[in-house]
């Protein structure tokens, strides 16, 4: 690939001017020789740099020229400072046009990207509380025929079934279309699912809508993490990807409050129809916002779109400065990762369990499994049941549930700014040990102070009751559990799964990890309602045992990944360093950046797939 030489020019030269009498032709990849008269060169300003692009003459699209990226031959006698423009013509049928979104306004602030991108996580939160808020409301139970514990478990779990299928398909979709377009497809599917739920006439209709919505959540829950982890600098990747979990919690709280408002302010079936229809709004916002997002630089590199990959790294990591040492080192690491990926065979899902990556796959899948078996989402789905067993009724139950959601939101938000400094292993271990203790305490209080009953407040799904100060203790420890979960496993489960896979396996690997999350989410959503009915307080003993086992599993098998580039994490997994000693490995990326700074401007990004710019 030739090197392109560009330098700054005064703004007055930005105005297109007629080409000189003799303009050499430029040869471009993917363009038919019969239409090789593509000599329209434009220098477009980005911050203080100018990007050279080749435009096809006459390929007119919404008021601007469609771009052809990647120049194969740059004539030596063509001045790099002149802007050329040619007359229009109809494009040839063999002309291949790259994505024109590069010429649209692009959001470059990583936190703004995370804020909008994690609306995909908020979709999951919306769906959790859109159901949990209604399971104890007469309007819902009467309209759908007072579903028993098994049927209600099936209704609640139906979204998880769809999410399992969606997360399996997500890896394939993201590898083919790109991370950004996969999320756009999921946004549209979510809107359809919300409309189906809104119009539900019976349980079957409702389940169908939740399955469709689940398909979308399966894609967004896995690929939002992949997308953000591939965009974010290593030093802040944890907090950026962790915003995904925070968005889930915002979605839970916002939809719960909407559901509460509809329940007390709207009569009849319109109450839950309005609530479920409003779910379409965040999906629409996400779909529109994605038009202004950059594509993942690592996915672009995997497609050999090097110029776009380098530019995206520069604008995200260094305000557009391609010569920043951090950008140069990151780009070279991406090049090496792509080279290794291209040398290996095309992967199937079975390849995730091959000799090279099976340890990573086990880490990614198990961290998602343990996140569910910790019991956090159970507390979200069935919070109303828990508080009814503890003696609360009516609006008191609803407001107490809202307090739990606020605690969840605040604790995760408080952890995000420091999550990369604390480390992944430490938070996972602290979370599993403390949640284990809380589960055993709740089980002990309920067993010693509670009593069996035929029903609680007319709800035949609940057969255990605990009142007075003991009931308040159960509620207090439920709040403590939620806070611990929000500080530890809730954000780390998604972050860790997005970090451990190498580039070629990442989309499919995170998809399989998310599928593990959803299959256990489905099992627990279906199991817990009958469990509260049949084994009452012993349900908490089961979750306590899960926490005990996961503590040992995390300690002996999970390496530390905080503060590492995705390529450095590859090295950690490829060595024989014990997981509890991986923090001793030096900061390879940081050392290389410092070396480049000492070398000065001579350290240019180069290589077989790179483009050199002289500024």
Automatic annotation (TrEMBL):
Q: Where is this protein found?
A: Membrane
Sorted alphabetically, the keyword list is: Membrane, Transmembrane, Transmembrane helix, Transport
Q: Specify the domain of life of the species encoding this protein.
A: Eukaryota
Per the UniProt entry, the signal peptide is none
Q: Which parts pass through the membrane?
A: 110-135, 155-174, 181-200, 206-229, 250-270, 276-293, 369-387, 399-420, 427-448, 468-497, 509-528, 540-558
Chain segments carrying region Disordered: 595-615
Keyword Transmembrane carried by entry = yes
Instruction: State the Pfam families in the record.
Output: Sugar_tr (PF00083)
Where does this protein chiefly localize? membrane
Instruction: List, for all copies, the residue spans of the domain called Major facilitator superfamily (MFS) profile.
Output: 113-562
Which topology term describes how it sits in the membrane?
Multi-pass membrane protein
Q: Name one GO molecular function term.
A: carbohydrate:proton symporter activity
Gene Ontology cellular component? membrane
Q: Return the similarity comment.
A: Belongs to the major facilitator superfamily. Sugar transporter (TC 2.A.1.1) family.
Classification from the root reads: Eukaryota, Fungi, Dikarya, Ascomycota, Pezizomycotina
Q: What is this protein called?
A: General substrate transporter
């Amino acid at each position: 690939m030739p090197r392109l030489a560009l330098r700054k020019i005064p703004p007055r030269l930005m105005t297109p001017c007629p080409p000189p009498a003799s303009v050499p032709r430029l040869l471009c990849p993917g363009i038919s020789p019969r239409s090789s008269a593509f000599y329209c060169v434009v220098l477009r300003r980005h911050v203080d740099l100018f990007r050279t692009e080749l435009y096809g003459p006459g390929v007119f699209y919404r008021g601007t020229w469609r771009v052809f990226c990647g120049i194969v031959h740059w004539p030596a006698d063509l001045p790099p400072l002149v802007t050329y423009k040619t007359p229009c013509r109809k494009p040839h049928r063999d002309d291949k046009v790259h994505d024109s979104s590069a010429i649209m306004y692009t959001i470059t602030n990583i936190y703004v990207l995370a804020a909008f991108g994690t609306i995909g996580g908020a979709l999951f939160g919306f769906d959790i509380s859109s159901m949990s808020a209604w399971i104890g409301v007469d309007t819902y139970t009467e309209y759908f025929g007072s579903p028993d514990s098994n049927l209600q478990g099936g209704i609640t779990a139906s979204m998880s079934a769809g999410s399992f299928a969606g997360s399996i398909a997500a890896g394939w979709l993201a590898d083919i279309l790109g991370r950004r377009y996969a999320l756009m497809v999921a946004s549209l599917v979510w809107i359809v699912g919300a409309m189906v739920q809104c119009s539900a006439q019976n349980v079957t209709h409702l389940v169908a809508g939740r399955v469709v919505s689940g398909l979308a959540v399966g894609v967004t829950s896995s690929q939002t993490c992949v997308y953000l982890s591939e965009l974010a600098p290593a030093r802040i990747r944890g907090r950026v990807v962790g915003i995904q979990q925070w968005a889930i919690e915002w979605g839970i709280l916002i939809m719960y409050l909407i559901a509460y408002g509809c329940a007390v302010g709207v009569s009849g079936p319109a109450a839950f129809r309005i609530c479920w229809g409003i779910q379409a709004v965040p999906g629409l916002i996400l779909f529109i916002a994605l038009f202004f997002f950059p594509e993942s630089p690592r996915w672009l590199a995997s497609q050999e779109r090097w110029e776009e990959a380098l530019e995206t790294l520069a604008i995200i990591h260094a305000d557009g400065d391609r010569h920043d040492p951090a950008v140069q080192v990151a780009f070279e690491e991406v090049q090496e990762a792509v080279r290794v990926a291209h040398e290996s065979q095309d992967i199937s899902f079975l390849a995730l369990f091959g000799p090279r990556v099976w340890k990573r796959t086990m880490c990614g899948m198990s961290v998602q499994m343990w996140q569910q078996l910790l019991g956090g989402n159970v507390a979200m789905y069935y919070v109303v049941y828990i508080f009814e067993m503890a003696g609360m009724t009516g609006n008191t139950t609803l407001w107490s549930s809202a307090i739990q959601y606020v605690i969840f939101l605040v604790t995760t938000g408080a952890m995000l700014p420091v999550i990369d400094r604390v480390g992944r292993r430490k938070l996972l271990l602290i979370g599993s040990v403390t949640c284990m203790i809380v589960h055993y305490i709740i089980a002990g209080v309920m067993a010693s102070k509670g009593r069996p009953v035929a029903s609680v407040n007319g709800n035949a799904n609940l057969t255990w009751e605990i009142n007075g100060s003991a009931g308040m203790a159960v509620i207090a420890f439920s709040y403590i559990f939620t806070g611990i979960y929000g500080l530890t496993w809730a954000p780390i489960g998604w972050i860790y799964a997005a970090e451990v896979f190498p580039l070629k396996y990442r989309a499919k690997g995170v998809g399989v990890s998310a599928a593990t999350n959803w299959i256990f989410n489905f099992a627990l959503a279906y199991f817990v309602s009958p469990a509260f009915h049949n084994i009452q307080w012993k349900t908490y003993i089961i979750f306590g045992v899960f926490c005990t086992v996961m503590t040992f599993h995390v300690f002996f098998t999970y390496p530390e990944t905080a503060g590492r580039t995705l390529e450095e994490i590859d090295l950690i997994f490829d060595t024989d360093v014990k997981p509890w000693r991986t923090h001793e490995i030096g900061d390879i990326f940081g050392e290389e950046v410092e070396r480049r700074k000492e070398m000065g401007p001579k350290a240019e990004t180069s290589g077989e797939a790179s483009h050199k710019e002289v500024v």
